[in-house]
Amino acid sequence: MMNFFYNLTLYCDAPQPWGLYFQDSASPQMEALIELHDNIMFYLAIILFGVAWIMISIIRNYVSNKAPISNKYLNHGTLIELIWTITPALILILIAFPSFKLLYLMDEVTDPSLTVFVEGHQWYWSYQYPDFSNGDDEELEFDSYLVPESDLEEGALRMLEVDNRVILPELTHVRFIISSGDVIHSYACPALGIKCDAYPGRLNQISVLINREGSFFGQCSEICGILHSSMPIVIESISLEKFLFWLQEQ
Amino acid sequence: MSDDEERVTMPFKFVTGFDARFPNQNQTKHCWQNYVDYHKCILAKGEDFKPCRQFFIAYRSLCPASWTARWDDQRDAGNFPLRLDQ
Amino acid sequence: MLRTTPLLRQLPATLQTSRTAAASLTPLARKQQSNQQQVRCAHAISNPTLANIEKRWEAMPPQEQADLWMALRDRMKVDWNELTLQEKKAAYWIAFGPHGPRAQAPPGEGTKIFIYTILGVVAAGALFGFTRYFARGSPRSMNKEWQEATNEYMKENKIEPISFVGGEDYKGPGAVQSGPKPKE
């Protein structure tokens, strides 16, 4: 009963308990995003220390018992106003350069080798692989539901495991076409650096190249109803041969 | 299943390729356009016309099955929102 | 009241040394001097008016405070070296002294603030504890055995290999953050 002190929160978005930083990247765009983040953090640190220093100096030097006479008539100060307008503008420009560069790079269309079609529903994802179909015009499609806690094997990640994972080959340009069947959802996988909203009636395209084998977890990122927290995404990337083998089994 | 093997032995097949008319994230019109172009192409040139196949592959990979099924139904019922014979 | 008391003429600094000295001028002399220089309002304010201004200020009615301040302000329009020491002190005290908006906190204020803050925190904690008392228990996966199994699972599936358990060289608790499973 008295376990409210022990109920530490497991932040399900990062498989690390209490993880604060990004998950390990598995695609070049995620690596670029992490680098941009670190770049901007440099400017933020400068601003943080500068502003903190100014504030502490003002508080220490102008406290009322040290400087009791207040100047009520200070109205202008053109030089300092110029400085504190131009300096943030310059800092913003410095931040903007790598940011826009990455933005346009990510928007660049690559010729994808594989298309995966993702449709969000309340409260599961359904996937289709439209490039592959057997002779009967049957497509490869499946739904992906959360594994409830009672069905979890020991050691599995709670609230992140699904019954059918998205299997993709590594080192292949994959295009996700994301849509929705009912309300807005958002398809997010932080390790791959993708997050794309799913709107009914609209097809959003996002492309990914997965660098390494492994499983990558993500969650629905747009509130969609009561089970919005129970719509995880698991993308598993395997080598090309194993992928072809898996395809044949379907 | 033989259909599977033939396709997948080409590792870097270009599924839809880049269409300069739809460079951005929103591919809704891209899907629609390919569907419409394919059916116009078939109506104009006949089903066996090889270049129509390109539109077919494009819309097969780009459009959700439910959308294409709905449009097929609309075409059959005569409700399709566009005149395909022009 | 102030307007009816005769205003002293500005006396040379050598003559004005103590509070009692100003009172020694006869009423006639004061009247004569004030008649001569009516143009400029540079009349020294009398010492009795200013005596103990620090103690008396709070008790003075607002109209009297306003009048005294007006008089002092008029005095300050001339070269300040001509002001008497009492006037300078009074002017400074009224403008910048610890009264009104600049009043210092009463003693014990800091302790009072601290105590009430702690009481607020305790009340919030009590409310929190009360609601958590009726909460469902922690999930099935928050115990050491499960989390060690999670570490194994991550190693096998190569999840987070670069900086966390999935890789080979990771030394550390990994996903383990809870105590062992309680005995059934």
TrEMBL record, chain A:
<keyword id="KW-0249">Electron transport</keyword>
<dbReference type="InterPro" id="IPR034210">
    <property type="entry name" value="CcO_II_C"/>
</dbReference>
<dbReference type="Pfam" id="PF00116">
    <property type="entry name" value="COX2"/>
</dbReference>
<feature type="domain" description="Cytochrome oxidase subunit II transmembrane region profile">
    <location>
        <begin position="14"/>
        <end position="110"/>
    </location>
</feature>
<dbReference type="GO" id="GO:0004129">
    <property type="term" value="F:cytochrome-c oxidase activity"/>
</dbReference>
<keyword id="KW-0812">Transmembrane</keyword>
<dbReference type="InterPro" id="IPR008972">
    <property type="entry name" value="Cupredoxin"/>
</dbReference>
<comment type="similarity">
    <text>Belongs to the cytochrome c oxidase subunit 2 family.</text>
</comment>
<protein>
    <recommendedName>
        <fullName>Cytochrome c oxidase subunit 2</fullName>
    </recommendedName>
</protein>
<dbReference type="GO" id="GO:0005743">
    <property type="term" value="C:mitochondrial inner membrane"/>
</dbReference>
<feature type="domain" description="Cytochrome oxidase subunit II copper A binding">
    <location>
        <begin position="111"/>
        <end position="249"/>
    </location>
</feature>
<keyword id="KW-0999">Mitochondrion inner membrane</keyword>
<dbReference type="InterPro" id="IPR036257">
    <property type="entry name" value="Cyt_c_oxidase_su2_TM_sf"/>
</dbReference>
<keyword id="KW-1133">Transmembrane helix</keyword>
<keyword id="KW-0479">Metal-binding</keyword>
UniProtKB/TrEMBL annotation, chain B:
<dbReference type="Pfam" id="PF02297">
    <property type="entry name" value="COX6B"/>
</dbReference>
<dbReference type="InterPro" id="IPR003213">
    <property type="entry name" value="Cyt_c_oxidase_su6B"/>
</dbReference>
<keyword id="KW-1015">Disulfide bond</keyword>
<protein>
    <recommendedName>
        <fullName>Cytochrome c oxidase subunit</fullName>
    </recommendedName>
</protein>
<keyword id="KW-0496">Mitochondrion</keyword>
<comment type="similarity">
    <text>Belongs to the cytochrome c oxidase subunit 6B family.</text>
</comment>
<dbReference type="InterPro" id="IPR036549">
    <property type="entry name" value="CX6/COA6-like_sf"/>
</dbReference>
<comment type="function">
    <text>Component of the cytochrome c oxidase, the last enzyme in the mitochondrial electron transport chain which drives oxidative phosphorylation.</text>
</comment>
<dbReference type="InterPro" id="IPR048280">
    <property type="entry name" value="COX6B-like"/>
</dbReference>
UniProtKB/TrEMBL annotation, chain C:
<dbReference type="InterPro" id="IPR036639">
    <property type="entry name" value="Cyt_c_oxidase_su4_sf"/>
</dbReference>
<dbReference type="Pfam" id="PF02936">
    <property type="entry name" value="COX4"/>
</dbReference>
<dbReference type="InterPro" id="IPR004203">
    <property type="entry name" value="Cyt_c_oxidase_su4_fam"/>
</dbReference>
<comment type="similarity">
    <text>Belongs to the cytochrome c oxidase IV family.</text>
</comment>
<feature type="transmembrane region" description="Helical">
    <location>
        <begin position="113"/>
        <end position="135"/>
    </location>
</feature>
<keyword id="KW-0809">Transit peptide</keyword>
<keyword id="KW-0560">Oxidoreductase</keyword>
<keyword id="KW-1133">Transmembrane helix</keyword>
<keyword id="KW-0472">Membrane</keyword>
<keyword id="KW-0812">Transmembrane</keyword>
<feature type="region of interest" description="Disordered">
    <location>
        <begin position="164"/>
        <end position="184"/>
    </location>
</feature>
<comment type="pathway">
    <text>Energy metabolism; oxidative phosphorylation.</text>
</comment>
<keyword id="KW-0496">Mitochondrion</keyword>
<keyword id="KW-0999">Mitochondrion inner membrane</keyword>
<protein>
    <recommendedName>
        <fullName>Cytochrome c oxidase polypeptide 5, mitochondrial</fullName>
    </recommendedName>
</protein>
